[in-house]
Design a protein that fits this description.
By secondary structure, the chain is mainly α. The protein is about 80% helix and about 0% strand.
């Protein structure tokens, strides 16, 4: 029972955070959305910051599961690469730019962990896909896969920043899709 309520709280908070960011959401808002008292909310989470950490943890678990499932179910490395980027983009975009902007300022340790997770997952998982693609003849052998992963990671690190997305009015999906297209197809006509 306790974990069901906790999951409902995380669901409601994620929905609120995606709409309004972290800063503008209150514990009252989350409790009201769920029809529970703030006291009940505080039984499960000490603070709104704790809820934000729980949202991040669940998102990272979801992404890990998605990566493992794709590895089992999609043998072609290029198709797997496209599929995981699409699904990860979809999962990450749920949370929204406003939330990312707020946590970068308000909870820098949480932001740092998100960045570290993204870099670690991309480096390990995408690097493995590229190596597999070279072995299967799907990716050119004259490309250094470590440099390719670093280039991809650098593009993501630069563009998937809340202030860059908001300033340029890119959605997370547009940014990821364009990075993927440039990475897989290049820019040459």
């Amino acid at each position: 029972m306790k974990s069901k309520i906790r999951d409902r709280i995380i669901d409601a908070a994620e929905k609120r955070f995606s709409q309004y960011g972290f800063r503008r959401v209150t514990m009252d808002d989350i409790a009201s959305d769920l029809g529970i008292s703030k006291k009940t909310l505080y039984i499960h989470f000490k603070s709104k910051e704790d809820i934000a950490w729980a949202v991040k943890e669940r998102m990272h678990r979801d992404i890990d599961k998605l990566l493992q499932r794709a590895k089992r179910e999609i043998p072609d490395p290029i198709l797997r690469f496209k599929k995981i980027i699409a699904e990860v983009t979809s999962r990450v975009s749920i949370i929204g730019s406003a939330f990312m902007t707020d946590i970068k300022k308000e909870i820098p340790d949480l932001w740092r962990q998100c960045e570290e997770f993204r870099e670690r997952e991309i480096y390990e998982y995408i690097g493995g896909i590229l190596e597999e693609g070279v072995k299967k003849g799907k990716i050119r052998k004259d490309i250094d896969t470590k440099i390719a992963v670093m280039a991809y990671l650098g593009a993501i690190r630069m563009i998937i920043q809340p202030e860059i997305l908001m300033k340029n009015q890119f959605s997370i999906e547009d940014a990821f899709n364009n990075i993927l297209k440039i990475f897989l197809e290049g820019i040459q006509k």
